[in-house]
Every structure is written in structure tokens, then in C-alpha cells.
Design a protein that fits this description.
- It comes from Demequina capsici.
- Keywords: Membrane, Transmembrane, Transmembrane helix.
- Pfam families: DUF3017.
- Helices cover 69% and strands 0% of the residues.
- The protein is mainly α.
- It has a domain of 58 residues.
- α1 runs antiparallel to α2.
- The model has no long low-confidence stretch (mean pLDDT 80).
Length: 90
């Protein structure tokens, strides 16, 4: 059985932080409402984009070039924010 190398793309702290953030969002969706959960996911995308810009490569989640990663996370954040504020959620 081969092990996955510990690279910036597969670092454990990034994976754990992502899982915890999504678990909190799901819990908030169940307890408070889906609008807050969607806005929390948008905030997580913004935080990821900021982290990708300011942190060195070995400390931030990186999949592609920095500009592509940041652009995608900002686009996801904008889309989630728009949907969270305009869609009839719960």
C-alpha cells in the first residue's frame, strides 16, 4: 500500500481545518438555517483566498498557480454570497 506524500496539496492541517469548517457549516444549517451556513462557506472561501495570497507555498493549500487558486476561491465566495443573500433558503 502506497502512502500519499506530505505535500502542500495534501497537508493534514489544511484537510482538518476544511473538514471542521464544513462540519460547522452543516451544523449551523441544521440548527440556525441554511442561509447562515452558505454565508459561512463564502467566508471560508474568502479566508482561503487570503491565506493563499499571504502565506508561503508550503503553508497554504495550493493546487494550481496562485492566481488561479485565488481567482477560483473569490469566484466561489461571490457566487455563494449572492446565492446566500438572494435565494429563498428555508
Amino acid at each position: 500500500m502506497s502512502q500519499v506524500p506530505d505535500t502542500p496539496q495534501t497537508s493534514e492541517p489544511v484537510a482538518v481545518a476544511t473538514l471542521i469548517g464544513m462540519a460547522v457549516a452543516v451544523a449551523l444549517a441544521l440548527v440556525v438555517g441554511p442561509r447562515l451556513a452558505v454565508l459561512l462557506m463564502a467566508a471560508a472561501c474568502v479566508a482561503g483566498a487570503v491565506a493563499r495570497v499571504v502565506l508561503p507555498v508550503d503553508r497554504a493549500f495550493s493546487v494550481r498557480r496562485r492566481a488561479i487558486d485565488v481567482g477560483m476561491m473569490v469566484a466561489f465566495a461571490a457566487g455563494l454570497t449572492f446565492l446566500g443573500l438572494t435565494a429563498p433558503l428555508g
